[in-house]
Specification:
Radius of gyration: 34 Å
Strand content: under 5%
Number of strands: 2
Number of helices: 28
Length: about 675
């Protein structure tokens, strides 16, 4: 940072080289950029020292001050502010993907404003965050002195841009009306004519403001009508978003509503500039508007802000679907606990069948792509089988049960949340136990039968060694691979919520019922029931297929790229280790066998913890809660576990009459686990 005296000297030297009336646009813009940069060169211990000294010099030399004011007015007179007022700082593309691509391209090739546009001047003078922050923080008293010294306070109401601001109001009102009456928005509100009329009224009032300004008419009455129309449209946009939250969410419609709200905010700002110009506060309003415009312009270039703003509601809807599914996995009564155990045994049986099918296919040296397709098909078929049979897989529970827990945290009732955690933990533990027992018993049984029938172990000695070595807790990458698998399981939970959102938003049940092929194959009396069943099971089947191929992709990615990437799923690992030890029982008590068993338990813990943690953080963010909001619950949970450890294992408690009752009221599961 230059000393204050040098910065003041630079700013005064630029005043001596003030462009004359004959200067072109480029020369004027370059001078304003250099002068604003010189004004910002304050020492850290003396803010606004340079500006104060320059304003004092302008006050002492009225001729130079008037020249600076005349140059600013001439610069504004010679520029076109239309696109700056209607587009700068606002999302302008009609779809979320289009706006995202625009911002990504701007990161590679920064856009350059056309010559003689107001945006070109703003970009030159305040095109970086530090300059925009400096403009916004400019002290009002210093600004008033500058306006007086340059005679700009004699031109209230932003005279050069007044007509352009009125035209911008009309353009923004028409654009907001277009967004509010888009096809998706009208479907969301089911054609409510009152809401549609509010958007049409906004367009009419905005055009009327522009018409009155063009003809020199009074703007007080049109601006009052416009203010009421803006308020009504903001309420209407909230109604549209509320309807989406109740039913299904469209990314493009969320984007359109946010764009509509941003446009309404800009209309309010421009209306404030047009209203009451005779009160002498016009230049101050213009300063606040320009400062906000520069900040919004920088925010508009942020890809991260766009994605974060427009995925929050989508994440909320996906989490709501996941929470509804997750409640199916949380048992209350002993009867439900036994039903969960039975469903987990069924899921372990399906995974054991998939494991043996994969083992048989793995005996052939397939190309990597073909192997991915085969293994992915085996896993997908097993997961789809579980869904249709009403069985459960323990590692699929955390991504959806975490959403249910996040809702309880948002409610703020800690005792009820602790009770929910008891049910959740014991449901998770019984699912893990059922899966592992079923897959281990079946894997050992098949390995023993194979040996009795053929006299040779199911897995060769070399393959047995690879299986055991691949599950060593410290001598292999089992912990990293288990964490990668946990992330995939978390993504499958989000996918399930997305599939459910799509099924509901597209009304698949009615669509299938009207399918021409189904009309010829199914009688009219049964067609609706068939279509409803297909639509109900489609999200679960879609998630099963996606999860199967994502799990199979982990080792394929590792083979293709050489990166440390592989699959370690607790049921697959438990079955593989059980088959290996069944072929050579003597290894069970050997260090390699004991380490492999410990590795399987470690895989299960990491799968569940990673999947649950990722899902919980996502669910909390969707509810607008910080991650630290779960910390008090963790402290209370630790104390509750020490006081009542059995409550996290079994749902048994003797009631007053000596009968078995649940710790919490029974929560009925209307549908089987998916």
């Amino acid at each position: 940072m230059a000393p204050a005296s040098l910065a003041v000297a630079d700013a005064l030297a630029l005043l001596a080289a003030l462009p004359g009336p004959a200067a072109g646009w480029e020369q004027r813009v370059r001078w304003w950029g250099d002068w604003c940069l010189a004004l910002r060169q304050d020492p850290e211990d003396a803010p606004w020292q340079v500006c104060t000294a320059v304003v004092a010099a302008l006050e002492a030399d009225p001729g130079t001050g008037a020249g600076v004011g005349a140059l600013l007015l001439a610069t504004l007179d010679g520029c076109d502010p239309g696109r700056t007022l209607t587009d700068t700082g606002l999302p302008v593309r009609p779809t979320l993907v289009g706006e995202l691509l625009r911002r990504l391209m701007a990161k590679v090739v920064p856009p350059v404003a056309e010559a003689e546009e107001l945006e070109d001047l703003l970009d030159t003078c305040f095109g970086d965050p530090a300059a925009a922050a400096w403009l916004a923080a400019l002290p009002p008293e210093l600004l008033r002195r500058f306006l007086a010294a340059t005679a700009l306070d004699r031109h209230p109401g932003w005279p050069a841009l007044r007509a352009d601001a009125a035209v911008a109001v009309g353009v923004l009102a028409a654009r907001a009306c277009s967004d509010g009456l888009s096809d998706e928005a009208r479907r969301a509100i089911h054609g409510e004519r009152a809401i549609q009329a509010q958007f049409l009224r906004l367009a009419d009032s905005g055009v009327e403001v522009a018409r009155q300004a063009a003809t020199g008419g009074a703007l007080d009455a049109p601006l009052a009508v416009l203010a009421g129309a803006v308020d009504d449209c903001e309420h209407a946009a909230g109604r549209v978003i509320a309807r989406m939250a109740e039913h299904a969410v469209s990314a493009d419609l969320v984007y359109r509503m946010e764009r509509l709200r941003a446009g309404l905010g800009r209309i309010r700002q421009l209306a404030g500039l047009l209203a009451g110009p005779a009160d002498g506060a016009g230049p101050m309003r213009a300063h606040r508007f320009l400062a906000g415009l520069c900040a919004a312009r920088l925010e508009q270039a942020s890809v991260r802000a766009l994605v974060a703003d427009h995925t929050r509601l989508l994440a909320r809807r996906v989490v709501l679907h996941a929470a509804a599914t997750g409640s199916h996995y949380i048992t209350g009564s002993f009867r439900e606990w036994r039903a969960m155990l039975a469903a987990a045994v069924g899921g372990g049986f399906a995974m054991a069948v998939a494991l043996h099918a994969k083992t048989a296919l793995g005996g052939i040296d397939w190309p990597a792509g073909v192997e991915w397709l085969l293994f992915g098909s085996v896993y997908a078929a097993a997961f789809a089988w579980m869904h249709l049979a009403g069985w459960t897989l323990a590692t699929k529970q955390p991504p959806v049960t975490a959403a249910a827990l996040a809702q309880a945290i948002a409610a703020g009732d800690q005792p009820a949340t602790i009770d929910l955690l008891r049910r959740l933990v014991r449901s998770q533990l019984v699912s893990v136990a059922g899966n592992l027992v079923a897959v281990g018993v079946l894997a050992v049984a098949v390995a023993l039968l194979w040996r009795l029938a053929g006299g040779a172990p199911l897995l060769s000695e070399a393959r047995t060694g690879l299986v055991l070595a691949g599950h060593h807790p410290t001598a292999s990458g089992v912990m990293l691979f288990a964490a990668e698998t946990g992330v995939v399981l978390f993504l499958s939970g989000l996918a399930q919520g997305w599939f459910a959102n799509q099924a509901q938003g597209r009304n698949l049940a009615r669509g299938f019922a009207r399918n021409s092929v189904l009309r010829h194959l199914v009688a009219p009396g049964r067609r609706d029931a068939w279509a409803a069943a297909v639509a109900a099971h489609l999200p679960g089947i879609g998630t099963a297929v996606l999860l199967g191929f994502m799990l199979a992709a982990l080792p394929a990615i590792g083979r293709f790229t050489g990166l440390p990437c592989d699959l370690r799923h607790v049921t697959i690992s438990a079955g593989s280790v059980a088959m290996a030890l069944a072929g050579e029982p003597a290894r069970l008590l050997a260090p390699a066998g004991l380490a492999a068993v410990a590795g399987v338990l470690l895989v299960g813990g990491i799968n569940i913890v990673v999947g649950f943690t990722c899902a919980l953080l996502t669910a909390l963010r969707a509810d607008g809660l910080p991650a630290r909001s779960a910390l008090p619950l963790l402290r209370a949970l630790a104390g509750d576990v020490l006081r009542r450890p059995l409550a996290y294992l079994l749902p048994l408690r003797r009631g007053p009459a000596g009968t078995v009752s649940s710790i919490l009221p029974v929560v009925r599961r209307p549908d089987p686990p998916t």
